[in-house]
Automatic annotation (TrEMBL):
The gene is def. CDD domains: Pep_deformylase. This is Peptide deformylase. Its cofactor is Fe(2+). The keyword Hydrolase applies. NCBIfam families: PRK00150.1-3. Gene3D superfamilies: Peptide deformylase.
Amino acid sequence: MTALDARLREEVLRLLEAAGDGTAPITRAGHPVLRGTAQPYDGQLEPDELTALVALLHRTMRAAPGVGLAAPQVGLALALAVVEDPGVPLEAIAEVRERAPLPFRVLVNPSYRAEGDERAVFYEGCLSVPGYQAVVARHRAVRLTAHDETGAAVDEVLTGWPARIVQHETDHLHGTLYLDRAELRSFTAADELGVRWASEPRPEAASAALGFPLT
């Protein structure tokens, strides 16, 4: 094990000890770990340590609440993320946004590439940038390649909201925040005004009122 691997393992063990059966503090925008490239996971942890870290990420994501959480968001420069989305109850929004439920899964060393040229434009938020949302144009469909927590290969095409979640969390592992891809004129506080815009199936009224393109 290299010195870098040893330091990473020590950071993981300290985080696990501090969190216990609770959650981890979420790293906020401005912390350097969110702007660096995460270290690929290559067996730096013992199997029980990896299991404990995945469980901690899962608890922290659900408590926030969120639909995805990457290891840099708890201060760890490790290429690991968890995702899970129960979907939304409003059928019209779910249909337009293609927001099908996404069962819990672990993404180890994930990467994605666009499948086709089609883009989807919706509001997006981030647990590391609390209280705000902005419109982001994402690839409508992506091919995800990764491994799961058991080492099994993942290779599948995702569309709609699941594709958006995977892009968002994988970007975290390369130092990219959603704001780097956002229409900044759409940037809005997630209070009553923000909730009104974000609840549109497609942000057409927000586009007209705030003056940003839907492209």
